[in-house]
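Practice problem. Given the sequence and the SMILES for pyridoxal-5'-phosphate, write out the predicted structure.
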Amino acid sequence: MISATPSVFDVAVSQSGSGIDPFVDRHAPDSTHTYYGAGKVALRDGLAGLVDSGENVLVPAYLSPAVVEPFHDLGLESRFYAVEETLAPDFADLESRIDDDTAAVMSVNYFGFPQPGLERIASLSDEYDCYHVDDNAHSPLSVCDGTLLGTHGDLGITTLRKLLPVPDGALLYCTDDEVKSQFSPSSLAGRSGRIAAGDCRFVAASVAERVLETSPSLHRSVEAVLSDGAEDSSSVDPSGRYEAAKVPMSRFSAAVADAADPDAIRAARRENFRAWQEIVDGRNDLTPLFKRLPAGISPYEFPVRTSESEAFLAELEDCGVVGAHTWPILRQNVREDETYETSIRLADELVALPVHQGIEPSAIETVGDRLRR
Ligand SMILES: Cc1ncc(COP(=O)(O)O)c(C=O)c1O
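Answer key:
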């Protein structure tokens, strides 16, 4: 069975490496980094000393609903800019939304790849004298043009939870000198020294997941029972998700991050990306979002477009792939606005296939044999 995330029990994950810190130091020598429990809280702290309430921040419309909550926490307005099919900003739309109160423009490196137009966003931010936030939540290990993604702006973030089998964890990068000098970490910065109940719950859930992995049908039944009447993460309101994220990085996450082997993880993810690429190339109802996998990129997932996303997800599940999903659930005001037609279509059509380091490429190839039939 192919799950959405790696498990703490995967051999590839538990091999001991030098950890995340030296990797970040090596690829982002000019930035400082600070640990947090969540990327959203890192965004809040990073911007807190730089902005005034009543200003606005421009963010892509193609985005998970809770990501703008830290801006609202700071009294900022979030303005959504439209994106193209390639996920590049619609620059005419973006520029039309900038005004004298624009404090920052945020780019998003989707699925571990640099957002097309990233350098133009940086120069526009200079031109309009606002900060450039480089949101690299999706992939802490992606390096582009010799520099870690997330550090291509004045400040940026990444999320360890999307890379490692951890309950939480994120990094704030301060790259610009003024950003560095204005940064004043809140009590939510840093790594907790105590093992918390949440750490134990996470490990217990990993054990349960491992047992359920032995049988996709058992997995489906348990999921159905659990979702009966209970709220899944998508139904929790964005501000509730943000408030729940206001905790420092857990001790368990810190231990896993310190033992990780970044180069091995990135290599495994790239191999799995290529395995999906071969399968998808053989089907004319599926269009990969990224045709190439440039050197240095650590893919978060393998995104593919199809007009029949529900049917494709069902087909995948029949083949034992339970970790695929559409992405993202858009914020309600984006979903209801025709200006964001491309983001809405992408959110309906894009299926993200898991490539994490806990998956053996042979497992993907076996799925491929069934999907090709
Ligand atoms: C593009 C993007 N930015 C930021 C975040 C927030 O990261 P975190 O969940 O660590 O707060 C997410 C989370 O899904 C995301 O997808």
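Check your answer against the key. The CA atoms of residues 69 and 243 lie 9 Å apart.
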